[in-house]
Amino acid sequence: MNRPAFDDIYMELAVNLARRSHCIKRHVGAVLARDTRIISIGYNGPPSGTHNCDEEWAENGCPRDSKGGCSLAIHAEQNAILYAVKNKTSVEGATLYITLSPCLACSRIIFSMGIRRVIYLKSYAEYKGIASDEGVDFLKKFGVEVDRYQGELANVTHMI
Hints:
globular; alpha/beta; 5 strands; single chain; 160 residues
């Protein structure tokens, strides 16, 4: 029997979690794990109890903020961190698996919460058409281990 690596399992889960997103623009999933155990999960979308963008604004998504971003969206990694903290689970020393590299604002949160490693599938810079992954650069500068996922997604039925 060929046993999959935990990195493969958790990235596959992040990809499948992204399918839960109500965002019109981009589906992103995240898994927080420590010591081979999942401690939290998340996907991008509006705060619980507000509007689901794909239902309320099905054609164009939620209204834009002053910088052109989603006015309601909480990023997948933010949701995973917030859920853990809300349930009194420490994320310090954890590894974050995410389908899109973190933006600079999320990277500040990741660093501040003591997450020690980030593995991402796709580049935020490539998605946004900007020169570099500022969030990745920030995390590396301050000692967080960051790697682009290089494994094989064998058990994902649909990539978003």
